[in-house]
Write a structure and sequence with these properties.
two-stranded antiparallel ribbon, alpha/beta, elongated, Arc Repressor Mutant, subunit A, 9 strands
């Protein structure tokens, strides 16, 4: 199979001419808010994964607009962190629109909670952006065949729903000691202003910690964090 360098047109469509033998008319969409990354993944799909056409989108809304205008891809690869939401949210929407589309989430974030969030939303697979080229292409091929592919989850995340009698430490959740302290106060319903006063830092600093905590847990807001950890005890 010849490797042909794709060209990107003004509409963000990556295509080859001629189409490499054996690729058929497979189409994909790559959703990533970094244009260079999106184009790089699109080119990789063309030259290594047998896709004959790839369109790029830089936000969830861009992707949904492509679907609304009649684009019917076989595969959509979605970066987890998007400027207008997360892959989990977009996956849920796309699965409702067309359950036949294969949905593969990706991220440079090594936090396993990100992958867990994508899986729970209904993604068909997850692959890290740091993955070697052969691994990336193998995951794409598996998902296209209808075979779910997710890296193994660390025990600390697999155990969260089941071992509620065991206290969790900040390190169990991938948090710093300070973040663990703030999380405990969040779970008790304390607002940022109260937390800032009690631990002697600025409210801005608390907000930064809260954002880090939510990202590490793979949730979008305090309510989701409380739901995830409902009934759990936080230890030292």
């Amino acid at each position: 199979m010849a490797i042909i360098k794709p060209a990107v047109d003004a509409a963000g469509v990556v295509s080859t001419d001629p189409v490499p033998a054996g690729t058929g008319s497979a189409m994909a969409i790559v959703v990533d808010d970094h244009p260079l990354v999106a184009s790089g993944i699109a080119e990789f799909l063309m030259t290594h994964c047998g896709m004959s056409q790839v369109r790029t989108a830089h936000s969830a809304q861009d992707c949904l607009a492509l679907i609304a205008e009649g684009t019917v891809p076989e595969l959509i690869i979605i970066d987890f962190w998007l400027p207008d939401g997360t892959a989990a949210e977009l996956v849920s929407q796309l699965a409702a629109i067309n359950p036949q589309i294969r949905l593969l989430a990706t991220s440079g974030d090594e936090d396993a909670a990100v992958m867990l969030k994508a899986r729970e939303a209904g993604a068909d697979g997850f692959v890290h952006k740091q993955a070697a080229a052969d691994i990336f292409s193998e995951v794409v091929a598996a998902v296209r065949r209808g075979e779910p592919h997710f890296p193994p989850l660390p025990a600390r995340l697999l155990d969260l729903p089941h071992r509620r009698d065991v206290p969790l430490s900040a390190s169990d959740l991938g948090l710093t000691v300070r973040q663990g302290e703030i999380l405990g106060m969040m779970l008790r319903g304390f607002p940022n202003k109260r937390i800032a006063r009690d631990i002697g830092v600025s409210e801005y600093t608390v907000k930064e910690h809260v954002t880090g905590i939510l990202n590490r847990l793979g949730v979008s807001n305090r309510i989701e964090a409380i739901t995830l950890l409902r009934g759990r005890k936080l230890g030292n």
